Amino acid sequence: MSAGRASEGAGCFTWWGFSPARILLSTGPDKFGEEANILLVGSADPRHILKTIAGLQDEQSLHVYVIENSMEVVARQLLLLYVALIPQEVMGIYEKAEVFLELFGNCEIRSQTWENLQRAASQLSVSVTETLEEAANTCLDTTLLKFKERDELCRIFKLWLQTSSSEHPAPIRMSAAWDYRVRQHLGTRYDSRKGCYDWDLTMKLHSKGCGVINKQQYVRWREQGLAFEMREGTYHITNPTLLSSRAFNQRGDKVSIRGYWGDIVSSPYLSFGIETDDESLLKTCNGQHTKTAQDVSIANVQRLFQSLSSRRGCLTTPQSDSETETARSVSVHGNRPSKLVLEKKTTHGGNTGSNCTDVVTC
């Protein structure tokens, strides 16, 4: 069990997955041919999608259906996919990996990352609400969404733009929201929280094969919500993609409170930082890992982005006279036409009303 309240530690919004990235085409017993259809339920982030796309053969076609329980998670998946598919000519692989991981696992981000978030959110907002014959982003097709769902996504993207900037501080201080969750989780053990962090790391993570997670980095994340601190910059701007609204019962009335309601125990390192094909990153010396989960995450994400850029039909950006840096379209070219399609599915039975994104790639 966790050192605190287990139900509060996991949170009610799943911003990242609790398992390493997998190649979806190699997980099942059946071998897939040139075309495959895969359903992902509650994957929380696009780690499986990115790793599967990076390993696709030129002649393969893949349809991945992703069902999430909130539009905030859908919007975040779209953002992370958008950043991952930015052409190398627009953003270098190392810079893109930094931006991706900061948006992915940091509650507070640098000003440079905030600027990239603004550009991406603006483009996604246009792509979701665009009603012209030619979509603003040729990789995103939201025509299968209901209008109210498009409006909800657009509202979320615009909320990201209005949440904070260096000139306009966020109405919600992420440090205060994070500390509130920690106090709520630990209760009377808050004053001895360092011991609780050590217990969770040793007994829950290290004992299950996650020994590469460094204690100092894990404690920093538990205290401040900073999982990836890759530069000596200042992480002071609230990451709005990790904010959401949660309904509470107050004197018989439901009140919606906006804050951080995600995981504060397991950490974002589980998605990209505990497994790797490069065995040198998992070496130990005197029983201690020489590299950290942050190092492994950076290496894995860079390798994914390199594969996406170098595979046949790598990502390109259509050029036009009226195109600007803040409104670029990301296209995927291969042996067959390909694009990313966003779709809302309503399943019948136990999952009525779930949000489903249909990501189609070749």
List the helices and strands and how they pair.
Blueprint: H1 6-10, E1 35-41, H2 47-54, E2 61-68, H3 71-84, H4 93-105, E3 108-109, H5 111-129, E4 140-141, H6 147-163, H7 174-186, H8 193-205, H9 215-224, E5 237-238, E6 244-250, E7 253-259, H10 269-272, E8 284-285, E9 288-289, H11 293-310, E10 332-333, E11 337-338, E12 340-341, E13 355-361
Helix pairs in contact: 2-11, 3-5, 3-6, 4-5, 4-11, 5-6, 8-9
InterPro entries: DNAAF3, DNAAF3_C, DUF4470
Family: Belongs to the DNAAF3 family.
Pfam families: DUF4470, DUF4471
Characterization of this structure:
By secondary structure, the protein is of the alpha+beta class. It has one domain. The chain has 11 helices and 13 strands. The strands form 6 sheets. Strands 1-2-13 form a 3-stranded mixed beta sheet. Strand 6 (244-250) and strand 7 (253-259) form a beta hairpin. The longest helix is centred in the first third of the chain and has 19 residues, at 111-129. Mean pLDDT is 79; it is low at 312-362. Residues 312-321 have a biased composition (Polar residues). Residues 140-328 form the Dynein assembly factor 3 C-terminal domain.
Distance between the ends: 43 Å
Structural class: alpha+beta
The proportion of residues forming helix, as a percent range, comes to 25-40%
The portion of residues forming beta strands comes to: 5-15%
Care to give the gist of this entry?
This protein has 362 residues and is of the alpha+beta class. Helix content is 37%, strand content 14%. It has one domain (6-361).
Main attributes?
alpha+beta; two-stranded antiparallel sheet; disordered C terminus; 37% helix; 3-stranded mixed β-sheet; 14% strand
